[in-house]
Structure formats: C-alpha cells, structure tokens
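Tokens as discussed.
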C-alpha cells in the first residue's frame, strides 16, 4: 500500500493542498479560497471538507493517508498545537492541529510557512541534498527559515528565522508592520526597494512596482541602479551576519523579487562576500529558489515525515 501525506500551505488568498508520497512525488494538487470572514473561524472546516471530498474522489484503496503537514503564516506554540497568531487570517490562539485531527483522525504537524518553504527547498528544490541553509523570501516583506543539520531553527517562541525583522541602521525612519522601526524588510523587500526608488524620484509614482525598477536597471537608469545598490547593501549585510553565525552551505533566495534572477543574485553575492567571515567566503552558494508556490507543501510534508521518523536512510538520501 502506497503511503501518502497531505501537504497544506495556508495563504491569505488561497489554501494550497497536495497528496505527496514519501519520495516526494505529487499525486494530486488542488486549492481552495481562504475564507477570512469571522476571523478565519471557518478555515479548519473548509480544509477538512476539501480533504474529505478529495479522498472520496480518489477512492484509491492502494493509498494510505498517514499524516498531514500544514504551513501557516504565523508562529506555532512550543507544543506544536496552536497557531499563536496569523494576522492575515484573523487568528489568535487557533487550535488548528486538534481541529483537523479530530475530524479526520489523521495526525497533523504544524509549522510556520516560511520554515515549510525552507524545508521544501532543502528536500526537493535549490538546496536538494544539503542540510544546512539560509532561506530568504523577498516579497512584500522579507521572510525566511534557517535549517541546520536538517532541522529548522524554530526557537523558544517559534520566532526563529524572522530574518525580515533584523534591525538595521538608517537615518531614514521606516515603520514595520510588526510595530518596530527600520526592520530589514522595510528596506530589503520588494516594497522596500520601491520605497527607496520613490524617494529618489522628483514625482511620486504610486503604481510603481519592483518589476518597473528592474526594467529601468536593465535600461541603465542610474537612479534605479542606486536603489538596488542600497537594497542589496542592507540585505547582504544581514545575510552575512546570519552566515557568520550559523555557517550554512547554501543561501536560497525566493519570493517575487527573486524573479529578477542574476540582476539581483550577482550583486547580492558580492555584497555578502564583502562582509562574510573569510573562512566561509568561497565555500557557500547563493541560488534562486526552484519550487515556487509548491515549496510550502513539500516542506509541510517533509516536516511530518521527519518528525515522525518515517523516512528511512535510503529515502532520505533519495530526497
């Protein structure tokens, strides 16, 4: 009988789900809208019903659903039972694990969505075959996950890997969504890049996007190139600081801003090298994430497999 898991990535707009076997092969993918009305109270029920319907449609007696991994946009309680806070969903102390397990009678593992994406890239993506990496997502904010010896650095308060909230120094004051001032993501995210570009323009362009900035960079626009230099300087110093602390072998860059490819990655690598400890310089890679929107569901499944010691040594090597 084929052992399969259900990987789930809960986003603010959609909830992505997939049936994945122990070797990482996806057998089915689907998604449902995220219902954030009434502070997201109906989301657990929506997930349960969707899984039940899919299992009914599959009607495959050769497959056994042995577990569920769920990536959520917020910290998880130390006991792994509660989503402490998920602002975009309206959740405070949501007992998601028990809510799903009670209805489906299938064990559930919860983890932060950025950590899930990091595990996904380690298992099946840009860092495949490696077990020490720093994963950074560059979107509207800056997220991340740090993995050492195959384990996520989660921390006592489930806040390990909050790369976007590393404090930086600037004479300019930018307020972060977390309430602090001058967090890394206020300068190094796609929104941060756009803000920096807007500050240098004579006329404010409200609809300016990071794509516009990189288009101007490609055309040789000096202000756009300066905006990127400022962004990369903050990001490179922060990543170098992390690398000097954990000495990982791979830095994986994901999120919408990673779509710029070498236009971002090459100057970023140069900036990291400027600040990184000499013994590490030249002994690590900076790569673009490969799994896109599937990273979270892969990582959620891997988290379940590893936490329950289901992967054999052979299966781990085949990851």
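Sequence:
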């Amino acid at each position: 009988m084929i052992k399969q898991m259900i990987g789930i990535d809960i986003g603010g707009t959609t909830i992505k789900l997939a049936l994945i076997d122990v070797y990482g092969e996806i057998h089915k993918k689907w998604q449902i809208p995220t219902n954030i009305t009434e502070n997201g109270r109906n989301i657990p029920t929506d997930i349960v019903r969707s899984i039940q319907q899919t299992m009914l449609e599959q009607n495959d007696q050769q497959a056994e659903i042995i577990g569920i991994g769920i990536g959520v946009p917020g910290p998880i309680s130390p006991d792994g039972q509660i989503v402490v806070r998920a602002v975009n969903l309206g959740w405070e102390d949501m007992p998601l694990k028990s809510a799903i397990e009670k209805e489906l009678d299938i064990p559930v593992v919860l983890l932060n969505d950025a950590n899930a994406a990091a595990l996904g890239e380690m298992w099946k993506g840009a860092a495949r075959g490696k077990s020490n990496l720093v994963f950074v997502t560059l979107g509207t904010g800056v997220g991340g996950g740090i993995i050492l010896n195959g384990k996520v650095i989660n921390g006592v308060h489930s806040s390990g890997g909050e790369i976007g909230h590393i404090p930086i120094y600037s004479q300019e004051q930018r307020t972060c969504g977390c309430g602090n001032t001058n967090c890394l993501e206020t300068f190094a995210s796609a929104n941060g890049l756009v803000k920096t570009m807007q500050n240098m323009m004579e006329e404010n362009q409200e609809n300016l996007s990071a794509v516009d900035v990189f288009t101007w960079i490609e055309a040789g626009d000096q202000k756009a190139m300066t905006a990127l230099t400022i962004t990369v300087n903050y990001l490179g110093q922060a990543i170098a600081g992390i690398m000097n602390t954990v000495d990982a072998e791979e830095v994986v860059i994901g999120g919408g801003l990673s779509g710029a490819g070498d236009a971002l990655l090459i100057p970023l690598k140069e900036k990291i090298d400027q600040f990184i400890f000499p013994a590490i310089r030249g002994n690590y890679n900076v790569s673009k994430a490969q799994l896109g929107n599937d990273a979270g569901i892969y990582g959620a499944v891997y988290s379940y497999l590893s936490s329950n010691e289901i992967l054999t040594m052979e299966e781990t090597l085949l990851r």
